[in-house]
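STRUCTURE REQUEST FORM
Protein name: EGF-like domain-containing protein
Source organism: Amphimedon queenslandica
Requested output: C-alpha cells
Priority: standard
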Amino acid sequence: METSLTILVSLENSGGGLCTKDYVRIHSNGAWGNKYCSDSRIEEKFRDTVVMIKYHTDHFNTFSYEVFTGISITTITGDINECSEGIDGCSHTCTNTFGSFFCSCPEWMYLSCDRKTCIDINECASDNGGCKYSCTNIAGSHTCTCPSDDDDDDCCSDGYTLNSHGTNCIPVDVNECLNTSLSQCSQFCVNELNSYHCLCKRGFKLSSDGKNCSDVNECLEFIRPEHHCATCVNFDGDFLCLCADGYTYGPDLHTCVGNF
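Status: completed
Returned output:
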C-alpha cells in the first residue's frame, strides 16, 4: 500500500529561501527527505503506510512531529501574526507570539474574562475614589464633585488632597520622619505611606515602645566560652573581647581563635 501526500508549504522565516531556519522534512521509505521552506507544493507517493513530517522552527529551537497514515492532505504554514491580520479580537494591545497571541491593557484598565476586552477600573468603587462628596468615574481616571460653597481644602476625605489639576482626590502622606517631634525615633526613621517605623544602629535593639533604641550587651547575649575571651568589655553599640593567653583575634576581630 502506498501513501499519497500533498503538502502546501509557506513559511515566513525560511532563512532567505535556504531553509536554514524554518523548514519541513518528510520521513518515508526509511530516510529523511529534502527540506522545504519557501512557497512550494509537495506531491509524493511513498511505499510506507506511515509518513512522518518534521516541522523545525528557530523561534524556540524545537521540533514538532506529525504522523499521517493512509492518504493524507495537509497544509503546514509558519506563524500567523493574528495581531497584524486583525483577527486577534483585542480591544487594546495585541502581542503576537509564535503560534498564538495575547491581549493586554493600559494600567488603568483590567482584562476581562474573555482575555480580550479591556475594562476601565472604576476608582469610585473603592473608598469613593477619595472624594468626600460625589465621585464620577471617567476613562482612565475619576473626578470629585464638591458643593459650590465648599472650599478646596474640605472637598476631599481625611487623608486625601486635591491633585494639581483640582479634579480628583489623591492620598496625601505626612512624612513623620522630617519632624522628630512626630516620629520620636531615637536613631533611624523610615517613612511609609500614612505611617512610619523606627530602626536602630548595629549594636542596638528597638525598645518595646517602638521608638527608642537600647544598647545590646554582647558580653551577656553573644560571647560564649568557645570564643575564648579572657575579658569582655561592653560599650554602646559594640564590645571588646580581650583574648586569653595563646589566642589571637579571629577574622571578625571580636572573637579569639587558638594560636597553636
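Reviewer notes: The longest strand covers residues 3-10. The chain has a mean pLDDT of 76.
Form closed.
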